[in-house]
Amino acid sequence: MSAPRVLIIGCGVAGPVLAVLLKQKGYDPIMFEKVRQLGDVGASLMLMPNGIKVLQLVGLADAVKAESAPLQGFWEGKATGEMLAESDLPSTFLAKYGQPAAGVKRTSLNMMLKDMLLDLGVEVREGWKLATVSETDEDVTALFENGQSVKGSFLIGGDGIKASSRAAMLNLQGVPQSAPNYTGLVQVAGISETPEEFLEKAIKRNWYGQGAHVIAYPISPTLTSWAITMPEDQEAEETWHLYTPGSIKTEAGNLVTMLDGWDPTLHRMITSAQRVIKYGLFDRAHLQPHQWYTERCVLVGDAAHPTSPHLGQGANQALEDCYHLSIAMPVIDPKSDDYGRALETLGKYLSKNIFAPFAEKRQPRTSALVKGARIQGELRVSRDPQRCQERDALIRDSFKDSAAVEAQYDSLLREPFQQTSS
Fold first, then answer.
1. Which Gene3D superfamilies does this entry report, sorted A to Z (predicted)?
2. Which 8-state DSSP code applies to residue 293?
């Protein structure tokens, strides 16, 4: 009997990792990606120990760390460059959690994941955008916008905040899909040569000013990724807007003018940008656990719990989803005494036995983090001078209790399983 076919929608972060984890357990995953050719996209991701632990399971953690510059510290400051607080907590992550925190260029990670799939013989179909889904007690059929359909044992939707899989599943449940909600904030992100002042130690830095927040962290020994978050009343495009090489200098100049009076090192970094993109920050209506799945379909990552980037946990929570869903799935081994029981688990009780417990386990944690990210966004970006002073005082005071800071990160980073450094 052939291995159960798994239809995975979205070749971002979660989809490829799940494909490999399920292939390791005897499934036959097929990856579907709406873009015609995966390539250069976005800016960067901050991978924390909870996410890198999952990448270790598919053999990519070492490659990510080799390309990056694992974090050794946090720095919080005013727009002018005056320090509010600092911490060397990230330097303890490797010993405590088995993995460090490390920034990585999004394109690099995406291509590592795609190459991993191809090396393992996983079929990747690019230019296949999901249209609708139909299901029975035993299988699921995905219909794509190219007019073709594919049948599988079950379907996993991991295609991000604009997920077609989410819309298709909610349609099966009779729930209308609402448009993404604009948060009133936009980000302009870039990649630059790391300023000489920042080369000595890999630190994630935050600058807080009136009407803007800037974050920067290394993504290689010589490159830094940065992002400016600011209010914009006119709704920005949800998709990435990549500036052309000819327009980068103009946009960087506009940003430096906007950040007049800010840290001069930040100005130099922005001016030397090799890449600049702009995008609006959106989220979607909150989903209850039972809305994460249907009889033969389940959502993971931003398709299930889209979040703003202010806690840096979007990709990391998607990777946690991958781990928990994969360990819940039975091993498919025709030579095993449990083979019949495994096939029975994948039958008409799949949603009850696998999807429901998965969603009920993950939804409370991801929901709390989504809310926390929204609160952080509101805290970080304010036009009101009094609120900015209160924010700066809160940041300064919060780092005085190092034990509390450590406990806050521990609640995130000890998941999804314990790993000791080797």
1. FAD/NAD(P)-binding domain (3.50.50.60)
2. B
Which residue, among 41, 65, 67, 40, has the nearest Cα to 223 in the 3D structure? 67
The Cα 234–Cα 358 span in angstroms is 38
Domain assignment present for 56: yes
Residue 197 lies in a domain: no
Q: Is the pLDDT of residue 238 over 60?
A: no
Tell me the CATH number at 403: 3.50.50.60
pLDDT in tens, 65-109: 999 999 999 999 999 999 999 999 999 999 999 999 999 999 999
Strand partners for 321? none
Which strands form 83-87's sheet, in the order they lie side by side?
83-87, 73-78, 203-209, 212-218, 223-231, 181-193, 275-283, 241-242
The pLDDT of residue 236 is: 53
Could you give the CA distance from residue 390 to residue 275 in angstroms, rounded to a whole number? 34
Q: Are 415 and 50 in contact (CB under 8 A)?
A: yes
Kindly compute the dihedral angle of the four CA atoms of residues 366, 110, 229, 197, in this order, to the nearest 10 degrees: 120
Using a 10 angstrom Cβ sphere, with 0-12 exposed, 13-18 middle and 19 or more buried, the burial of residue 69 is: buried
* Domain count of the fold of the chain: 1
- Answer yes or no: is pLDDT of 155 > 90: yes
pLDDT in tens, 302-329: 999 987 776 778 899 999 999 999 999 9
In a domain, 17, yes or no: yes
Q: Is residue 195 domain-resident?
A: no
